Amino acid sequence: MKSSSSHSPCVPKPSEIFSGFFFAFVSSLATASLLEQSASRNTYDYIIVGGGTTGLVIANRLSEKLDTVLVVEAGDSVYSNSNVTDTGAYGKALGTAIDWQYTTIPQEYGNNEVQTLHAAKAVGGTSTINGMSYTRAEAVQINSWEKAGNPGWTWDNLFPYYMRSEKYEIPDAKRINGGASYNPEYHGFTGPLKVGYPSQQAINGFASALNESYQAMGVPYSTDVNGGKMRGFNVYPKTVDAATDIREDAARAYYWPFSRPNLYLKANSTANRLLWAAHPNLQGNFVATAIEVTAVDGKHYAAGSLRTPPLLELSGIGNPSILQNYGITTKVPLPGVGENLIDQTNNGLTFSMIPGEKYTGESGYAAYPNVTDIFGSAASSLASSIFSDLPSYASRVAAQNNNASTASALLSLFKLQHSLIFDSQVPIAEIVHYPYDGSFGSQFWSTLPFARGNIHIASADLSVPANINPNYFMLEYDIQSQIGIARFMRKLFSMESLAKIAGSESWPGTRAVPANTDDATWTKWLKQNYSANYHVLSTAIMLPRAMGGVVSHRLKVYGTANVRVVDASIFPFQLCGHLMSTLYAVAERASDLINEDSEI
Protein backbone atom coordinates (compact mmCIF):
# COMPACT_ATOMS: atom_id res chain seq x y z
CA MET A 1 0.00 0.00 0.00
CA LYS A 2 1.27 3.47 -0.77
CA SER A 3 1.34 5.92 2.10
CA SER A 4 -0.10 9.39 1.65
CA SER A 5 1.25 12.74 2.54
CA SER A 6 -0.48 14.55 5.38
CA HIS A 7 -3.95 16.03 5.07
CA SER A 8 -5.08 14.44 1.82
CA PRO A 9 -8.71 14.77 0.75
CA CYS A 10 -10.60 11.60 -0.14
CA VAL A 11 -13.72 12.21 -2.16
CA PRO A 12 -16.85 10.11 -2.55
CA LYS A 13 -19.50 10.56 -5.20
CA PRO A 14 -22.90 11.56 -3.75
CA SER A 15 -22.95 8.08 -2.45
CA GLU A 16 -22.05 7.78 1.21
CA ILE A 17 -19.52 7.95 4.03
CA PHE A 18 -19.66 5.42 6.84
CA SER A 19 -17.89 4.94 10.11
CA GLY A 20 -17.01 1.69 11.87
CA PHE A 21 -14.92 0.14 14.86
CA PHE A 22 -17.28 -0.74 15.53
CA PHE A 23 -17.69 2.03 13.06
CA ALA A 24 -18.20 2.48 9.40
CA PHE A 25 -18.83 6.00 8.29
CA VAL A 26 -20.53 5.45 5.03
CA SER A 27 -20.57 8.49 2.92
CA SER A 28 -22.28 8.38 -0.36
CA LEU A 29 -21.09 11.52 -1.94
CA ALA A 30 -21.66 12.00 -5.59
CA THR A 31 -18.02 11.31 -5.63
CA ALA A 32 -16.14 11.03 -2.39
CA SER A 33 -12.48 11.77 -2.58
CA LEU A 34 -9.33 10.75 -0.79
CA LEU A 35 -5.69 11.53 -1.31
CA GLU A 36 -3.59 8.93 -2.80
CA GLN A 37 -4.57 5.32 -2.87
CA SER A 38 -2.89 2.17 -3.99
CA ALA A 39 -4.88 2.15 -7.21
CA SER A 40 -4.14 5.85 -7.89
CA ARG A 41 -7.84 6.65 -7.64
CA ASN A 42 -9.27 9.40 -5.47
CA THR A 43 -13.02 9.34 -6.14
CA TYR A 44 -15.38 6.65 -4.90
CA ASP A 45 -19.04 5.86 -4.61
CA TYR A 46 -18.59 4.97 -0.94
CA ILE A 47 -15.92 5.74 1.61
CA ILE A 48 -15.83 3.67 4.79
CA VAL A 49 -13.78 4.95 7.71
CA GLY A 50 -12.51 1.97 9.68
CA GLY A 51 -11.67 -1.45 8.28
CA GLY A 52 -12.99 -3.26 11.32
CA THR A 53 -15.85 -5.53 12.29
CA THR A 54 -18.63 -3.52 10.68
CA GLY A 55 -16.64 -1.60 8.10
CA LEU A 56 -15.45 -4.66 6.22
CA VAL A 57 -18.92 -6.22 6.20
CA ILE A 58 -20.36 -3.12 4.56
CA ALA A 59 -17.42 -2.81 2.17
CA ASN A 60 -17.95 -6.40 1.08
CA ARG A 61 -21.68 -6.07 0.54
CA LEU A 62 -21.60 -2.70 -1.21
CA SER A 63 -18.83 -3.83 -3.55
CA GLU A 64 -20.90 -6.81 -4.70
CA LYS A 65 -22.34 -4.38 -7.22
CA LEU A 66 -20.26 -2.14 -9.51
CA ASP A 67 -20.00 0.71 -7.00
CA THR A 68 -16.48 1.72 -6.04
CA VAL A 69 -15.78 1.37 -2.32
CA LEU A 70 -12.81 2.67 -0.34
CA VAL A 71 -11.94 1.55 3.19
CA VAL A 72 -9.66 3.84 5.21
CA GLU A 73 -7.96 1.95 8.04
CA ALA A 74 -5.40 3.23 10.56
CA GLY A 75 -3.82 -0.19 11.00
CA ASP A 76 -2.20 -2.73 8.74
CA SER A 77 -2.65 -6.41 7.99
CA VAL A 78 -2.28 -8.78 10.93
CA TYR A 79 -2.86 -11.84 8.77
CA SER A 80 0.33 -13.54 9.97
CA ASN A 81 0.48 -12.11 13.49
CA SER A 82 0.49 -15.12 15.81
CA ASN A 83 -0.80 -12.98 18.70
CA VAL A 84 -3.93 -12.63 16.56
CA THR A 85 -4.25 -15.94 14.76
CA ASP A 86 -3.59 -18.30 17.69
CA THR A 87 -6.96 -19.22 19.20
CA GLY A 88 -5.33 -19.88 22.55
CA ALA A 89 -3.46 -16.57 22.65
CA TYR A 90 -6.21 -14.24 23.84
CA GLY A 91 -4.64 -11.31 25.65
CA LYS A 92 -1.22 -11.52 23.98
CA ALA A 93 -2.07 -8.74 21.51
CA LEU A 94 -3.26 -6.40 24.25
CA GLY A 95 -0.68 -3.75 25.00
CA THR A 96 1.19 -4.35 21.73
CA ALA A 97 1.58 -2.06 18.73
CA ILE A 98 -1.82 -3.05 17.35
CA ASP A 99 -3.68 -2.00 20.53
CA TRP A 100 -4.74 1.66 20.76
CA GLN A 101 -4.97 1.46 24.56
CA TYR A 102 -7.38 4.34 25.06
CA THR A 103 -7.47 5.65 28.63
CA THR A 104 -10.31 7.16 30.62
CA ILE A 105 -10.16 10.17 32.85
CA PRO A 106 -9.98 9.31 36.59
CA GLN A 107 -13.30 7.71 37.51
CA GLU A 108 -15.07 9.74 40.18
CA TYR A 109 -17.30 6.87 41.30
CA GLY A 110 -14.75 4.14 40.60
CA ASN A 111 -12.03 4.79 43.17
CA ASN A 112 -10.57 7.57 40.99
CA GLU A 113 -9.00 4.87 38.82
CA VAL A 114 -7.85 5.46 35.24
CA GLN A 115 -8.99 2.54 33.09
CA THR A 116 -7.56 1.27 29.81
CA LEU A 117 -9.92 0.51 26.94
CA HIS A 118 -8.47 -1.90 24.41
CA ALA A 119 -9.27 -1.59 20.70
CA ALA A 120 -7.33 -2.86 17.71
CA LYS A 121 -5.42 -0.91 15.08
CA ALA A 122 -5.58 -3.51 12.34
CA VAL A 123 -7.35 -4.57 9.19
CA GLY A 124 -10.17 -6.49 10.82
CA GLY A 125 -10.49 -4.11 13.77
CA THR A 126 -11.15 -5.34 17.27
CA SER A 127 -12.30 -8.72 15.95
CA THR A 128 -8.55 -9.42 15.72
CA ILE A 129 -7.84 -9.07 19.46
CA ASN A 130 -11.08 -9.81 21.31
CA GLY A 131 -12.03 -13.04 23.08
CA MET A 132 -13.76 -14.45 19.95
CA SER A 133 -16.98 -15.11 21.92
CA TYR A 134 -19.94 -15.65 19.62
CA THR A 135 -22.91 -14.95 21.87
CA ARG A 136 -25.77 -12.79 20.64
CA ALA A 137 -28.49 -11.11 22.70
CA GLU A 138 -31.89 -11.72 24.20
CA ALA A 139 -34.65 -11.23 21.64
CA VAL A 140 -36.45 -8.76 23.92
CA GLN A 141 -33.29 -6.65 24.07
CA ILE A 142 -33.25 -6.12 20.32
CA ASN A 143 -37.01 -5.50 20.41
CA SER A 144 -36.35 -2.71 22.92
CA TRP A 145 -34.50 -0.81 20.19
CA GLU A 146 -37.78 -0.40 18.33
CA LYS A 147 -39.62 0.47 21.55
CA ALA A 148 -37.09 3.24 22.12
CA GLY A 149 -38.13 4.85 18.83
CA ASN A 150 -36.30 2.97 16.05
CA PRO A 151 -38.84 1.41 13.66
CA GLY A 152 -37.81 -1.92 12.19
CA TRP A 153 -35.13 -2.78 14.73
CA THR A 154 -36.53 -6.01 16.15
CA TRP A 155 -35.18 -9.48 16.80
CA ASP A 156 -37.29 -10.95 14.00
CA ASN A 157 -35.86 -8.44 11.54
CA LEU A 158 -32.26 -8.82 12.71
CA PHE A 159 -32.20 -12.61 13.14
CA PRO A 160 -31.91 -13.35 9.38
CA TYR A 161 -28.78 -11.19 9.32
CA TYR A 162 -27.18 -13.15 12.14
CA MET A 163 -27.82 -16.18 9.96
CA ARG A 164 -26.59 -14.52 6.76
CA SER A 165 -23.25 -13.57 8.27
CA GLU A 166 -22.54 -16.97 9.83
CA LYS A 167 -20.90 -20.15 8.60
CA TYR A 168 -21.42 -22.40 11.60
CA GLU A 169 -19.06 -25.36 11.66
CA ILE A 170 -20.73 -28.40 13.19
CA PRO A 171 -18.67 -29.72 16.10
CA ASP A 172 -17.16 -33.18 15.78
CA ALA A 173 -17.32 -35.89 18.44
CA LYS A 174 -14.19 -34.62 20.22
CA ARG A 175 -15.57 -31.11 20.56
CA ILE A 176 -18.97 -32.43 21.64
CA ASN A 177 -17.16 -34.43 24.31
CA GLY A 178 -15.70 -31.10 25.43
CA GLY A 179 -19.17 -29.60 25.85
CA ALA A 180 -19.95 -28.20 22.40
CA SER A 181 -23.66 -28.20 21.62
CA TYR A 182 -25.98 -26.33 19.28
CA ASN A 183 -29.45 -25.99 17.81
CA PRO A 184 -29.22 -25.91 13.99
CA GLU A 185 -32.30 -23.65 13.78
CA TYR A 186 -30.29 -20.85 15.37
CA HIS A 187 -27.37 -20.83 12.95
CA GLY A 188 -26.41 -20.00 9.40
CA PHE A 189 -24.20 -22.39 7.46
CA THR A 190 -23.36 -20.49 4.26
CA GLY A 191 -22.18 -17.05 5.41
CA PRO A 192 -18.65 -15.65 5.33
CA LEU A 193 -17.93 -15.78 9.09
CA LYS A 194 -16.75 -19.13 10.43
CA VAL A 195 -18.08 -19.93 13.91
CA GLY A 196 -17.29 -23.05 15.89
CA TYR A 197 -15.04 -24.58 18.52
CA PRO A 198 -11.21 -24.75 18.62
CA SER A 199 -9.48 -28.07 18.04
CA GLN A 200 -7.98 -27.88 21.52
CA GLN A 201 -11.40 -27.70 23.13
CA ALA A 202 -10.89 -28.62 26.79
CA ILE A 203 -12.08 -32.08 27.77
CA ASN A 204 -12.18 -32.49 31.53
CA GLY A 205 -14.53 -32.55 34.49
CA PHE A 206 -14.64 -28.79 35.04
CA ALA A 207 -17.50 -28.15 32.61
CA SER A 208 -19.71 -30.84 34.12
CA ALA A 209 -18.90 -29.65 37.66
CA LEU A 210 -19.85 -26.11 36.67
CA ASN A 211 -23.06 -27.28 35.02
CA GLU A 212 -24.11 -29.38 38.00
CA SER A 213 -23.31 -26.57 40.42
CA TYR A 214 -25.21 -23.97 38.42
CA GLN A 215 -28.22 -26.27 38.25
CA ALA A 216 -27.99 -26.73 42.02
CA MET A 217 -28.22 -22.92 42.20
CA GLY A 218 -31.29 -22.92 39.94
CA VAL A 219 -29.54 -21.83 36.74
CA PRO A 220 -30.37 -24.25 33.90
CA TYR A 221 -28.11 -25.70 31.24
CA SER A 222 -28.44 -23.98 27.86
CA THR A 223 -27.82 -26.05 24.76
CA ASP A 224 -27.38 -22.90 22.68
CA VAL A 225 -27.44 -19.27 23.85
CA ASN A 226 -27.80 -17.86 20.32
CA GLY A 227 -31.52 -18.31 19.77
CA GLY A 228 -32.76 -15.23 21.64
CA LYS A 229 -32.87 -16.75 25.13
CA MET A 230 -29.55 -16.62 26.95
CA ARG A 231 -30.20 -17.61 30.57
CA GLY A 232 -28.20 -20.64 31.63
CA PHE A 233 -24.75 -22.22 31.67
CA ASN A 234 -23.25 -22.88 28.25
CA VAL A 235 -20.07 -23.92 26.47
CA TYR A 236 -20.18 -21.17 23.87
CA PRO A 237 -18.84 -21.11 20.29
CA LYS A 238 -16.16 -18.74 19.04
CA THR A 239 -15.16 -17.07 15.81
CA VAL A 240 -12.60 -19.68 14.79
CA ASP A 241 -11.82 -21.64 11.66
CA ALA A 242 -12.24 -25.14 13.06
CA ALA A 243 -10.28 -26.75 10.22
CA THR A 244 -7.14 -24.62 10.60
CA ASP A 245 -7.61 -23.65 14.25
CA ILE A 246 -7.07 -19.97 13.42
CA ARG A 247 -9.02 -16.97 14.68
CA GLU A 248 -11.71 -15.90 12.23
CA ASP A 249 -11.69 -12.09 12.19
CA ALA A 250 -13.60 -9.67 9.99
CA ALA A 251 -10.77 -9.43 7.45
CA ARG A 252 -10.46 -13.21 7.04
CA ALA A 253 -14.22 -13.48 6.63
CA TYR A 254 -15.11 -10.42 4.55
CA TYR A 255 -11.96 -9.02 2.94
CA TRP A 256 -9.07 -11.39 2.24
CA PRO A 257 -11.07 -14.08 0.36
CA PHE A 258 -12.37 -11.49 -2.13
CA SER A 259 -10.50 -9.78 -4.94
CA ARG A 260 -12.66 -7.09 -6.49
CA PRO A 261 -11.38 -4.32 -8.75
CA ASN A 262 -13.91 -1.90 -7.24
CA LEU A 263 -12.94 -2.52 -3.58
CA TYR A 264 -10.00 -0.47 -2.31
CA LEU A 265 -8.19 -0.47 1.02
CA LYS A 266 -6.05 2.42 2.26
CA ALA A 267 -4.23 1.03 5.28
CA ASN A 268 -1.97 2.88 7.73
CA SER A 269 -4.09 5.99 7.28
CA THR A 270 -6.47 7.79 9.59
CA ALA A 271 -9.45 9.99 8.76
CA ASN A 272 -9.15 13.39 10.40
CA ARG A 273 -12.41 15.07 9.48
CA LEU A 274 -15.19 15.22 6.91
CA LEU A 275 -15.23 18.07 4.43
CA TRP A 276 -18.52 19.63 3.36
CA ALA A 277 -20.19 21.32 0.41
CA ALA A 278 -20.45 25.08 0.88
CA HIS A 279 -24.21 25.02 1.33
CA PRO A 280 -26.86 22.51 2.49
CA ASN A 281 -28.95 20.71 -0.11
CA LEU A 282 -32.58 21.56 -0.84
CA GLN A 283 -33.71 19.52 2.15
CA GLY A 284 -31.45 21.54 4.43
CA ASN A 285 -28.99 18.68 5.01
CA PHE A 286 -25.23 19.04 4.72
CA VAL A 287 -23.47 17.02 2.04
CA ALA A 288 -20.07 15.51 2.85
CA THR A 289 -17.80 15.89 -0.16
CA ALA A 290 -14.47 14.51 1.03
CA ILE A 291 -12.50 13.01 3.90
CA GLU A 292 -9.19 14.43 5.04
CA VAL A 293 -6.74 11.60 5.57
CA THR A 294 -3.32 11.49 7.21
CA ALA A 295 -0.71 8.76 7.14
CA VAL A 296 -0.56 7.23 10.60
CA ASP A 297 2.39 8.56 12.61
CA GLY A 298 1.54 6.98 15.94
CA LYS A 299 -0.33 10.00 17.28
CA HIS A 300 -3.81 9.64 15.88
CA TYR A 301 -6.68 7.43 16.89
CA ALA A 302 -8.50 4.83 14.85
CA ALA A 303 -12.13 4.57 13.92
CA GLY A 304 -14.53 3.02 16.38
CA SER A 305 -17.10 3.53 19.14
CA LEU A 306 -14.45 5.69 20.77
CA ARG A 307 -13.52 7.44 17.52
CA THR A 308 -16.89 8.15 15.94
CA PRO A 309 -17.75 11.09 18.25
CA PRO A 310 -14.37 12.87 17.91
CA LEU A 311 -14.49 12.48 14.14
CA LEU A 312 -17.98 13.98 14.04
CA GLU A 313 -17.01 16.80 16.39
CA LEU A 314 -13.88 17.69 14.42
CA SER A 315 -16.12 17.76 11.34
CA GLY A 316 -18.51 20.27 12.93
CA ILE A 317 -21.23 17.88 14.10
CA GLY A 318 -21.99 17.92 17.81
CA ASN A 319 -22.78 20.13 20.77
CA PRO A 320 -22.16 23.75 19.68
CA SER A 321 -20.87 24.75 23.11
CA ILE A 322 -18.20 22.04 22.96
CA LEU A 323 -17.25 22.84 19.37
CA GLN A 324 -16.99 26.57 20.10
CA ASN A 325 -14.47 25.88 22.86
CA TYR A 326 -12.04 24.66 20.21
CA GLY A 327 -12.83 27.09 17.41
CA ILE A 328 -14.77 24.57 15.33
CA THR A 329 -17.65 25.90 13.23
CA THR A 330 -20.88 24.03 13.88
CA LYS A 331 -22.35 22.49 10.75
CA VAL A 332 -25.01 20.38 12.46
CA PRO A 333 -25.99 20.98 16.10
CA LEU A 334 -26.30 17.47 17.57
CA PRO A 335 -25.78 17.57 21.35
CA GLY A 336 -26.04 13.78 21.57
CA VAL A 337 -22.69 13.24 19.86
CA GLY A 338 -20.35 11.64 22.38
CA GLU A 339 -22.97 11.27 25.10
CA ASN A 340 -24.67 8.15 26.53
CA LEU A 341 -21.40 6.19 26.68
CA ILE A 342 -22.04 2.81 28.33
CA ASP A 343 -19.50 0.20 29.38
CA GLN A 344 -19.49 -2.59 31.95
CA THR A 345 -17.20 -3.21 34.92
CA ASN A 346 -15.22 -6.43 35.19
CA ASN A 347 -14.20 -8.24 38.39
CA GLY A 348 -13.23 -11.82 39.17
CA LEU A 349 -12.89 -14.43 41.90
CA THR A 350 -10.27 -17.19 41.93
CA PHE A 351 -10.32 -20.58 43.67
CA SER A 352 -7.47 -23.01 44.11
CA MET A 353 -7.50 -26.50 42.60
CA ILE A 354 -7.30 -29.72 44.56
CA PRO A 355 -3.62 -30.81 44.28
CA GLY A 356 -2.88 -33.33 41.56
CA GLU A 357 -5.64 -32.25 39.16
CA LYS A 358 -4.72 -30.92 35.71
CA TYR A 359 -6.96 -29.06 33.30
CA THR A 360 -5.67 -28.38 29.80
CA GLY A 361 -7.17 -27.16 26.55
CA GLU A 362 -9.19 -24.12 25.56
CA SER A 363 -12.31 -23.45 27.58
CA GLY A 364 -15.37 -21.42 26.69
CA TYR A 365 -17.51 -21.68 29.79
CA ALA A 366 -20.03 -18.95 30.58
CA ALA A 367 -23.18 -18.55 32.62
CA TYR A 368 -25.93 -15.99 32.22
CA PRO A 369 -28.03 -15.79 35.42
CA ASN A 370 -30.98 -13.41 35.75
CA VAL A 371 -31.86 -11.09 38.62
CA THR A 372 -33.88 -13.76 40.44
CA ASP A 373 -30.99 -16.22 40.17
CA ILE A 374 -28.67 -13.65 41.73
CA PHE A 375 -30.91 -12.06 44.37
CA GLY A 376 -33.53 -14.74 45.00
CA SER A 377 -36.54 -13.52 46.96
CA ALA A 378 -34.91 -10.09 47.36
CA ALA A 379 -35.31 -9.42 43.62
CA SER A 380 -38.83 -8.06 44.09
CA SER A 381 -37.83 -5.46 46.67
CA LEU A 382 -34.80 -4.54 44.56
CA ALA A 383 -37.11 -3.98 41.59
CA SER A 384 -39.26 -1.60 43.63
CA SER A 385 -36.35 0.38 45.05
CA ILE A 386 -34.61 0.74 41.69
CA PHE A 387 -37.84 1.79 39.98
CA SER A 388 -38.36 4.53 42.56
CA ASP A 389 -34.79 5.69 41.92
CA LEU A 390 -35.16 5.92 38.13
CA PRO A 391 -36.20 9.62 38.06
CA SER A 392 -33.12 10.44 40.13
CA TYR A 393 -30.94 8.31 37.84
CA ALA A 394 -32.30 10.13 34.80
CA SER A 395 -31.72 13.58 36.29
CA ARG A 396 -28.17 12.74 37.34
CA VAL A 397 -27.24 11.30 33.95
CA ALA A 398 -28.82 14.25 32.12
CA ALA A 399 -26.72 16.64 34.20
CA GLN A 400 -23.56 14.61 33.53
CA ASN A 401 -24.29 14.36 29.81
CA ASN A 402 -24.67 18.09 29.19
CA ASN A 403 -28.46 17.65 28.96
CA ALA A 404 -28.03 16.23 25.46
CA SER A 405 -30.92 13.96 26.39
CA THR A 406 -33.51 15.37 28.74
CA ALA A 407 -34.22 13.68 32.04
CA SER A 408 -37.63 12.77 30.61
CA ALA A 409 -36.10 11.05 27.57
CA LEU A 410 -33.60 9.19 29.73
CA LEU A 411 -36.33 8.12 32.12
CA SER A 412 -38.20 6.47 29.25
CA LEU A 413 -35.03 4.54 28.33
CA PHE A 414 -34.37 3.58 31.94
CA LYS A 415 -37.92 2.27 32.32
CA LEU A 416 -37.38 0.05 29.28
CA GLN A 417 -34.14 -1.23 30.80
CA HIS A 418 -35.79 -1.80 34.18
CA SER A 419 -38.48 -3.85 32.46
CA LEU A 420 -35.85 -5.94 30.66
CA ILE A 421 -34.17 -6.73 33.97
CA PHE A 422 -37.15 -7.30 36.26
CA ASP A 423 -40.09 -8.16 33.97
CA SER A 424 -38.43 -9.96 31.06
CA GLN A 425 -35.78 -11.39 33.40
CA VAL A 426 -32.93 -11.09 30.89
CA PRO A 427 -29.54 -12.12 32.31
CA ILE A 428 -28.01 -9.43 34.50
CA ALA A 429 -24.60 -11.10 34.66
CA GLU A 430 -22.10 -12.88 32.51
CA ILE A 431 -19.71 -15.13 34.42
CA VAL A 432 -16.79 -16.60 32.47
CA HIS A 433 -14.79 -19.50 33.94
CA TYR A 434 -11.34 -20.80 33.01
CA PRO A 435 -8.73 -23.03 34.67
CA TYR A 436 -5.16 -21.74 34.75
CA ASP A 437 -1.92 -22.27 36.70
CA GLY A 438 -3.43 -24.51 39.34
CA SER A 439 -6.45 -22.28 39.88
CA PHE A 440 -10.02 -21.81 38.69
CA GLY A 441 -10.25 -18.24 37.47
CA SER A 442 -13.29 -16.21 36.55
CA GLN A 443 -14.43 -12.87 35.25
CA PHE A 444 -17.87 -11.44 35.80
CA TRP A 445 -19.75 -8.29 35.00
CA SER A 446 -23.17 -6.76 35.40
CA THR A 447 -24.52 -6.83 31.86
CA LEU A 448 -26.93 -3.88 32.09
CA PRO A 449 -25.51 -0.98 34.11
CA PHE A 450 -27.56 2.23 34.18
CA ALA A 451 -24.61 4.65 34.31
CA ARG A 452 -23.90 6.64 31.17
CA GLY A 453 -20.89 8.82 30.51
CA ASN A 454 -19.38 10.58 27.53
CA ILE A 455 -16.44 11.12 25.20
CA HIS A 456 -15.50 14.48 23.72
CA ILE A 457 -12.57 16.09 22.00
CA ALA A 458 -10.15 17.94 24.26
CA SER A 459 -8.66 20.02 21.46
CA ALA A 460 -8.93 20.76 17.76
CA ASP A 461 -5.40 19.33 17.59
CA LEU A 462 -5.68 15.79 16.27
CA SER A 463 -2.76 14.60 18.38
CA VAL A 464 -4.58 15.36 21.65
CA PRO A 465 -6.59 12.33 22.88
CA ALA A 466 -10.27 12.78 23.62
CA ASN A 467 -11.60 12.83 27.17
CA ILE A 468 -13.32 9.51 27.93
CA ASN A 469 -15.56 9.29 31.00
CA PRO A 470 -17.70 6.14 31.37
CA ASN A 471 -18.85 7.09 34.90
CA TYR A 472 -18.27 3.56 36.19
CA PHE A 473 -20.35 2.76 39.31
CA MET A 474 -22.11 6.13 39.15
CA LEU A 475 -25.53 4.68 40.02
CA GLU A 476 -26.50 2.44 42.92
CA TYR A 477 -27.86 -0.46 40.86
CA ASP A 478 -24.51 -0.87 39.12
CA ILE A 479 -22.59 -1.62 42.31
CA GLN A 480 -25.49 -3.54 43.89
CA SER A 481 -25.61 -5.93 40.96
CA GLN A 482 -21.83 -6.42 41.02
CA ILE A 483 -21.97 -7.21 44.75
CA GLY A 484 -24.80 -9.67 44.15
CA ILE A 485 -22.82 -11.49 41.47
CA ALA A 486 -19.75 -11.77 43.71
CA ARG A 487 -21.81 -13.29 46.52
CA PHE A 488 -23.47 -15.64 44.04
CA MET A 489 -20.01 -16.78 42.89
CA ARG A 490 -18.93 -17.66 46.41
CA LYS A 491 -22.04 -19.72 46.93
CA LEU A 492 -21.58 -21.43 43.56
CA PHE A 493 -18.17 -22.78 44.56
CA SER A 494 -19.64 -24.19 47.75
CA MET A 495 -21.91 -26.49 45.73
CA GLU A 496 -21.00 -30.16 46.00
CA SER A 497 -19.72 -30.72 42.46
CA LEU A 498 -17.35 -27.76 42.46
CA ALA A 499 -16.35 -28.26 46.09
CA LYS A 500 -14.99 -31.69 45.11
CA ILE A 501 -12.45 -30.20 42.68
CA ALA A 502 -11.87 -26.69 44.04
CA GLY A 503 -10.07 -25.60 47.17
CA SER A 504 -10.25 -22.32 49.02
CA GLU A 505 -10.88 -18.90 47.54
CA SER A 506 -7.51 -17.28 46.77
CA TRP A 507 -8.81 -13.99 45.32
CA PRO A 508 -9.93 -11.90 47.07
CA GLY A 509 -9.95 -14.48 49.87
CA THR A 510 -11.85 -14.25 53.12
CA ARG A 511 -9.17 -12.20 54.81
CA ALA A 512 -9.70 -9.34 52.37
CA VAL A 513 -13.47 -9.85 52.09
CA PRO A 514 -14.76 -11.94 55.02
CA ALA A 515 -17.56 -14.44 54.56
CA ASN A 516 -21.01 -12.90 54.99
CA THR A 517 -19.51 -9.40 55.03
CA ASP A 518 -21.53 -6.24 54.45
CA ASP A 519 -22.11 -4.28 51.24
CA ALA A 520 -19.59 -1.61 52.21
CA THR A 521 -16.71 -4.10 52.35
CA TRP A 522 -17.64 -5.63 49.00
CA THR A 523 -18.06 -2.15 47.48
CA LYS A 524 -14.59 -1.12 48.57
CA TRP A 525 -12.95 -4.27 47.19
CA LEU A 526 -14.87 -4.26 43.90
CA LYS A 527 -14.04 -0.61 43.21
CA GLN A 528 -10.38 -1.14 44.05
CA ASN A 529 -10.06 -4.17 41.78
CA TYR A 530 -12.26 -3.66 38.72
CA SER A 531 -11.29 -3.13 35.11
CA ALA A 532 -13.14 -1.83 32.09
CA ASN A 533 -14.95 -4.48 30.06
CA TYR A 534 -14.25 -2.90 26.64
CA HIS A 535 -17.92 -3.16 25.56
CA VAL A 536 -18.28 0.56 24.84
CA LEU A 537 -21.37 1.73 22.99
CA SER A 538 -24.15 4.35 22.52
CA THR A 539 -21.87 7.35 21.82
CA ALA A 540 -23.65 8.07 18.51
CA ILE A 541 -26.92 6.65 19.71
CA MET A 542 -29.74 5.58 17.39
CA LEU A 543 -32.78 7.44 18.74
CA PRO A 544 -35.21 10.10 17.57
CA ARG A 545 -33.40 13.42 17.34
CA ALA A 546 -35.69 14.96 19.96
CA MET A 547 -34.48 12.34 22.45
CA GLY A 548 -30.83 13.20 21.89
CA GLY A 549 -30.31 10.80 19.01
CA VAL A 550 -27.39 11.11 16.61
CA VAL A 551 -28.51 8.72 13.87
CA SER A 552 -31.94 7.77 12.58
CA HIS A 553 -33.31 4.26 12.33
CA ARG A 554 -31.84 4.27 8.79
CA LEU A 555 -28.46 4.92 10.46
CA LYS A 556 -28.03 8.33 8.83
CA VAL A 557 -26.53 11.14 10.90
CA TYR A 558 -29.22 13.76 11.48
CA GLY A 559 -28.70 16.92 9.45
CA THR A 560 -26.53 15.22 6.82
CA ALA A 561 -27.44 13.94 3.40
CA ASN A 562 -24.94 11.12 3.08
CA VAL A 563 -23.18 10.23 6.33
CA ARG A 564 -24.09 7.12 8.28
CA VAL A 565 -22.71 5.44 11.36
CA VAL A 566 -22.69 1.65 11.62
CA ASP A 567 -20.99 0.47 14.79
CA ALA A 568 -21.61 -0.17 18.47
CA SER A 569 -21.93 3.56 19.09
CA ILE A 570 -25.48 3.42 17.69
CA PHE A 571 -26.77 0.72 20.09
CA PRO A 572 -29.34 2.24 22.49
CA PHE A 573 -28.73 -0.33 25.26
CA GLN A 574 -26.09 -2.76 26.43
CA LEU A 575 -26.52 -6.41 25.44
CA CYS A 576 -26.27 -9.58 27.52
CA GLY A 577 -24.07 -11.26 24.94
CA HIS A 578 -20.78 -10.06 23.52
CA LEU A 579 -21.13 -7.29 20.94
CA MET A 580 -19.34 -8.89 18.00
CA SER A 581 -22.05 -11.20 16.66
CA THR A 582 -24.64 -8.41 16.79
CA LEU A 583 -22.23 -6.01 15.10
CA TYR A 584 -21.88 -8.41 12.18
CA ALA A 585 -25.67 -8.71 11.94
CA VAL A 586 -26.25 -4.95 12.21
CA ALA A 587 -23.69 -4.32 9.48
CA GLU A 588 -25.34 -6.91 7.24
CA ARG A 589 -28.71 -5.22 7.72
CA ALA A 590 -27.17 -1.77 7.28
CA SER A 591 -25.81 -2.76 3.88
CA ASP A 592 -29.34 -3.66 2.77
CA LEU A 593 -30.72 -0.37 4.11
CA ILE A 594 -28.04 1.55 2.22
CA ASN A 595 -28.75 -0.31 -1.00
CA GLU A 596 -32.49 0.30 -0.55
CA ASP A 597 -31.95 4.02 -0.06
CA SER A 598 -29.62 4.25 -3.06
CA GLU A 599 -32.41 2.95 -5.27
CA ILE A 600 -34.89 5.64 -4.22
UniProtKB/TrEMBL annotation:
Q: Which PROSITE patterns does the UniProt record give?
A: GMC_OXRED_1, GMC_OXRED_2
Could you say which residues bind FAD here? T53, T54, T126
Lineage: superkingdom? Eukaryota
Matching Gene3D superfamilies, A to Z? FAD/NAD(P)-binding domain, Glucose Oxidase, domain 2, Glucose Oxidase, domain 3
Protein family per UniProt:
Belongs to the GMC oxidoreductase family.
Q: Which InterPro entries match?
A: FAD/NAD-bd_sf, Glucose_Oxidase_domain_2, GMC_OxRdtase, GMC_OxRdtase_N, GMC_OxRtase_C
**Keyword annotations from UniProtKB, A to Z:** FAD, Flavoprotein, Oxidoreductase
Name the residues annotated as catalytic in the UniProt entry.
Answer: H535 (proton donor), H578 (proton acceptor)
The cofactors named for this UniProt entry are:
FAD
Task: Give the species.
Answer: Aplosporella prunicola CBS 121167
Which GO molecular function entries does the Swiss-Prot or TrEMBL record give?
Answer: flavin adenine dinucleotide binding; oxidoreductase activity, acting on CH-OH group of donors
Q: Where are the transmembrane segments?
A: none
**Which intervals hold domain Glucose-methanol-choline oxidoreductase N-terminal?**
120-143, 304-318
Q: Return the protein name.
A: GMC oxidoreductase
The keyword Membrane is annotated on this UniProt entry: no
